[in-house]
Amino acid sequence: MEAKMVDSPVAVVTGGSCGIGASVAKTIASLGHRIILTYNTHAFEAEEVVRCIREDGGDAIAVKVDAANAGEISLLAKHPWCKSGICALVLNHGMYERWPASQVDPDRMSKTLEINFLSSHRIWWELNSQIIDGASIVVIGSQLSTKGSVHGADYAASKAALTTWARSLALDVAERSIRVNVVAPGFVDTAILSQDSEKQRHEREEKVPLGRIADPDEIAGVVGFLCSEEAAYMTAGVIHVNGGLYRP
User: Fold this and answer.
1) Domains and CATH numbers, the chain
2) pTM
3) Which of 24, 106, 111, 26 is nearest to 66 (CA)?
4) pLDDT digit string (tens) for 34-43?
């Protein structure tokens, strides 16, 4: 399989073992890209994504990368596939814990900012020389980056920083025809919402004008579009995919 696709473009998807990241990896693979998907703790799930991609005729590998570990990020940049040139980078990894703002102490805030924001800059920094001209970078943000959250002040702050960083980066790399966009999901059917009771889930659905929670594939479809030639004139944008829940 690897020999078959040796000349195929390479896409890196961080946090690609489950949820939105897994759907993104499969979607971009269907566009003909070789996929490097990173994971931290979900090794089995990551290998399942790789298996699915290969069964569908694509090629992928899973690489363990702790977003808080600079050494592991450096090793990712040395992978032979990265050295062949990266045409798409999707920064999807992150963490979310439900804490009210009054209980987010400085250490917790620092941890969230490190994983959700600073590590994305570090990953881009390490991979930048291998990102080809004309590539696409997609950052997974959140609707909370502009509206805030009583139970996620650290998360909202980290996504706000990530969003403004991405839009600033877009201006810097435009001279290389590299595009940088943010996809800001609303409620998505991932592990985060699995903590909800049936009542809480119903309440979320009632808040959404379209009346339901998004499937990860619906977010991945937008990411896939942004990584395609059809989006060649889109950069520095924030695309809200939330069923009408948030209207900036």
Assistant:
1) 10-241 (3.40.50.720)
2) 0.95
3) 111
4) 999 999 999 9
